[in-house]
UniProtKB/TrEMBL annotation:
The chain crosses the membrane at residues 21-43. Keywords: Membrane, Transmembrane, Transmembrane helix. One of its GO terms (molecular function) is metalloendopeptidase activity. Residues 119-210 form the M23ase beta-sheet core domain. It comes from the Bacteria. This is Peptidase family M23. Gene3D superfamilies: Glucose Permease (Domain IIA). Pfam families: Peptidase_M23. InterPro entries: Cell_wall_metabolism_enzyme, Dup_hybrid_motif, M23ase_b-sheet_dom.
Length: 217
């Protein structure tokens, strides 16, 4: 092989290597471009599809569906009943155990005769024409005490750690452990012996003002 032909062979071989490398690079770029374009189209299509579905559900009229649920099921009534059943009843008094004027309110007061300060654990109601003492709330007779100064004292236990205490009774219609309903006659008070009737309300061992539980206040 002469020198001229040898140079032509070497030059052609170099060109072929350069062309081969360029072709490979171009193929890689083309593959990457096609892949990116495919991903973009797929993402755009899926995105538009999701948005289209959301808009379709948003604009759909559910009026008939709601009517069918209300007319053919009792879900709403059951739900309402559960709410009312789970609603906690509040301790409220519809009346005092004895009709009459309150002559000593709950809390501190000054005795007009001795001028000393005292704390009244309950309220004192003036005894007039009514003899019957009524239970103010459903409960159970917890304790009965026969005292010298306060006559028969009855403690009635109620739910949620409430108790009511009735003083100055001369008769009792119930025994310890018996259930008693709101409005039942608990006993009688002697207006000749007692000018006032003492009534207390306790919650979790503490004295509270009975008047604050009156529902009509």
């Amino acid at each position: 092989m002469n020198y001229y032909n040898y140079n032509r062979f070497v030059y052609k071989r170099k060109n072929n290597k350069y062309l081969e490398g360029f072709t490979k690079r171009l193929a890689v770029v083309a593959v990457i471009f096609i892949l990116m374009f495919t991903i973009k189209i797929t993402y755009t299509y899926n995105g538009n599809t999701v948005l289209f579905k959301i808009e379709e559900y948003y604009r759909k009229d559910y009026t008939q569906t709601i009517k069918n649920i209300v007319s053919h099921s009792n879900y709403i009534s059951v739900f309402s009943n559960n709410i009312f059943q789970n609603k906690k009843e509040v301790f409220k008094l519809d009346f005092m155990p004895l009709d009459g004027q309150i002559i000593k309110p709950f809390g501190e007061y000054v005795d007009p005769n001795s001028k000393k300060s005292f704390f009244n654990n309950g309220i004192d109601i003036e005894v007039k024409d009514t003899y019957n003492v009524l239970c103010v709330y459903d409960g159970i007779i917890e304790k009965v005490e026969n005292t010298k100064d306060n006559g028969i004292v009855v403690t009635v236990s109620h739910k949620d750690n409430y108790k009511t205490v009735y003083y100055n009774l001369i008769e009792l219609n119930k025994d310890v452990g018996e259930e008693i309903k709101k409005g039942d006659i608990l006993g009688k008070v002697d207006k000749e012996k007692n000018k006032s009737f003492h009534f207390e309300v306790m919650h979790s061992g503490s004295y509270v003002d009975p008047l604050k539980f009156l529902s009509n206040r």
